[in-house]
Amino acid sequence: MKILVCLSNVPDTTSKINFTENDTKFDTNGVQFVINPNDEFGLTRAMWFKEKQGATVHVATVGEASTEPTIRKALAIGADEAIRVNAVPLDGFFVAEQLAEVIKNGEYDLVIAGRESIDYNGGMVPGILATLLDMNFVNTCISLEIEGNNATATREIDGGKEKIATTLPLVIGGQKGLVAESDLRIPNMRGIMMARQKKLNVVEPTTSKNATTDVKFEKPAPKGKVTLVDADNIDELINLLHNEAKVI
Amino acid sequence: MSVLVYTESENGKYKKNAHEVASYAYEVAKLMGTKATAISINAGKAESLGDFGVSKVLNVSNDQLKTFSAKAFAQVIGQAAEKENAKIIILSSSADTKFLAPILAAQLRAGYVPNVVSAPESTSPFKVKRTVFSNKGFAVTEISSEIKIVGVSNNAFGSAENKTKAEVENFEPALGGDSFTTKSIEVDKVVGKATIADADIVVSGGRGLKGPENWGMIEELAEVLGAATACSKPVSDLGWRPHGEHVGQTGKPVASNLYIAIGISGAIQHLAGVSSSKVKVVINTDPEAPFFKAADYGVVGDAFEVVPKLIEKLKEFKAQNA
Hints:
The complex is a heterodimer of chains A (248) and B (322).
Chain A: E1 2-6, E2 9-11, E3 19-20, E4 25-26, E5 33-35, H1 37-53, E6 56-62, H2 68-77, E7 81-85, H3 92-106, E8 110-114, H4 125-133, E9 136-147, E10 150-157, E11 160-167, E12 170-174, H5 189-197, E13 200-203, E14 212-218, E15 227-229, H6 234-244
Chain B: E1 3-7, E2 9-10, E3 13-14, H1 16-31, E4 36-41, E5 54-60, H2 70-84, E6 88-91, H3 95-108, E7 111-116, E8 122-123, E9 126-132, E10 137-143, E11 148-152, E12 167-170, E13 183-189, E14 201-205, H4 216-225, E15 228-231, H5 233-237, E16 258-262, H6 268-274, E17 279-284, H7 291-294, E18 297-300, H8 303-321
């Protein structure tokens, strides 16, 4: 089985978000970039398929040279090879079209991408990929088993979960649950050394266009001061929620 | 050239978000000088969408679509858009709709913008405001493709009554065997309880509750309020609660009217995930907990004393206001 894990390079979850150039750009100053958490759960599941079922695992990202530390981390975790499409990721449609080209050339059986990146939250790359390539697709996937050509996936639905039977070739929109948080791996020294020897292929983008453009950003309005209620005066809390906030 | 809206239903009944997206579609149609048409799959009372400004309903009754299939549902919506020559398609933010939206976007080569929080800022060029960076910011996004798909955030635009007479027309989509290449084999879903996605009130517990055995009072409080239960990331990582309850940046977003955080200190990732909730109440022993800076109402106190008292007082309140 040949697996491609799609990686997005995103600000660490603890990052404070600021905008620059008259609020038209994300301010990367002082921001630490990491593998998108939803992608990392998928990468870790792919490592399981590699170790238990002999799968080959490649990783791919669409980004400039500055994203290479993130790709190297994935190689240090255990991916066999990496592909970087040398382009600024313009929007989800653009990224999906670039990755579709990578998948066509690489003949992958299984593609795992995060259900969304935690920066622009577009949530469209895995679904667009699957449709462009006519592969099966399961989104918000929280467990995945593969046997031969058959896949059993569980997806999160509102208020529960649904088990789905499908076949390869398959695209997964992954998230936490594919593996547990405690299964995520920190690269060790040996992995880091080995990653330096692994192939990182840089390919040029196709000429596809973006369908959406972020023209302006803003930060949420600052929150007013909290109204503190004494722990011995819960009646007052109920009164405020009923008469002032009108939520009960 | 109407505005098409997919009005989601469950067991034949429209979901709350169906009324929200119908109201949104009415607003967009008004801005563009046209009408809102709904595409509805196996729902009863299609004409009731007229209450929310829908002028026409394409009504699909099809046994093959009794179970959700993202690809097949996307094909139905795509065919409805083609029939209506709709250039704008409005969707909700439910798990099912977020599953089908990218498939639809690829089929129609349409730009798709999810998590939209308000009516378009302009229609030519078409610009909408959405949340980005997992609710830590907003972006105004322009869609330049000919067909445009807008995913409206839960509980953001709200539903608005606009009494209109809805003409109901039966619609028969063309579906082939390749529309059903993923098969649902088992659904495990809580019934008769509010879900985090559509609850008006969410009650959430953190590590301050000390252990899974103490969740009884969280569930009782939720029951009194008709609320959904949720938890912080450490609680789900420790296995105290199921992953599906984890709210925050890498879990589910919450956009309820009222969010009650109990024993949750308020890490930046958690605050981002719940920031779309309208009113936030925090109960915590530590007055320095960061959550107090992001909350509307706060109680500094021990959850094991405050929550039972709150349950008791709420029961009295409910009895008086019943």
